[in-house]
């Protein structure tokens, strides 16, 4: 398996799926151009043992990514049907276990599993703290994150990259004025 080339990983599943597309030197990179990248994404999210990285899973996962991209920066009436189309391929079965209530995800076709789980995770984030689902504030960055900072003011996908570039740009602009 190849190393994960993405600049931001470790976000909740839905946002991690969105972050399989990113900008590098003003060129769009896409981890999900083939099943090799899908293997990397599945492994990064602990899904590699549950789902095959085949063409059908890749197609459905890309469909879910496109549906999420249409709603994450501002849902509309037109963006709901693609999300619902992915959700139509699975359901939650409520269970009772020795530890108490539980839930099991079930899919009409296992190849929809990763796609469905990612969209379901987005609904969980919306129910938890929708105002903490953010896009990076850097004008050329397309990455998304879930703001877990104490005061909820995180602006950058990464202070080391986008935050630093913004600070450097401001410094350069100030020095040009003088």
List keywords for this structure.
6 strands, globular, 178 residues, 6 helices, two-stranded antiparallel sheet, alpha+beta
What does this structure look like?
It is built from six helices and six strands. 43% of the residues lie in helices and 17% in strands. It has 178 residues and is an alpha+beta fold. Helix 3 packs antiparallel against helix 4 (80-87) and helix 3 packs parallel to helix 5. The model has no long low-confidence stretch (mean pLDDT 91). Strand 3 (90-97) and strand 4 (100-107) form a beta hairpin. The chain has helices at residues 13-18, 35-44, 55-72, 80-87, 113-128, 159-177, and strands at residues 21-24, 27-30, 90-97, 100-107, 133-135, 144-146. The radius of gyration is 18 Å and the shape is globular. The protein starts with 12 loop residues before the first helix and ends with a helix. The strands form three sheets. It has a two-stranded antiparallel ribbon with strand order 1-2. Strands 3-4 form a two-stranded antiparallel ribbon.
């Amino acid at each position: 398996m190849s190393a994960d080339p993405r600049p931001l990983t470790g976000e909740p599943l839905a946002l991690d799926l969105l972050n399989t597309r990113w900008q590098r030197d003003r060129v769009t990179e896409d981890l999900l151009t083939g099943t090799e990248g899908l293997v990397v994404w599945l492994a990064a999210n602990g899904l590699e043992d549950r789902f095959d990285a085949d063409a059908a899973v890749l197609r459905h996962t890309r469909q879910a990514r496109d549906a999420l991209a249409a709603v994450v920066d501002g849902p509309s009436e037109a963006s709901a049907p693609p999300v619902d189309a992915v959700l139509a391929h699975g359901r939650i079965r409520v269970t009772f276990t020795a530890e108490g209530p539980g839930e099991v995800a079930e899919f009409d076709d296992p190849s929809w599993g990763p796609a469905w789980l990612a969209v379901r995770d987005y609904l969980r984030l919306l129910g938890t703290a929708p105002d903490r689902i953010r896009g990076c504030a850097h004008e050329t960055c397309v990455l998304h994150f879930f703001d877990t900072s104490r005061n909820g003011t995180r602006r950058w996908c990464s202070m080391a990259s986008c935050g630093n570039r913004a600070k450097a740009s401001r410094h350069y602009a100030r020095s040009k004025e003088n």
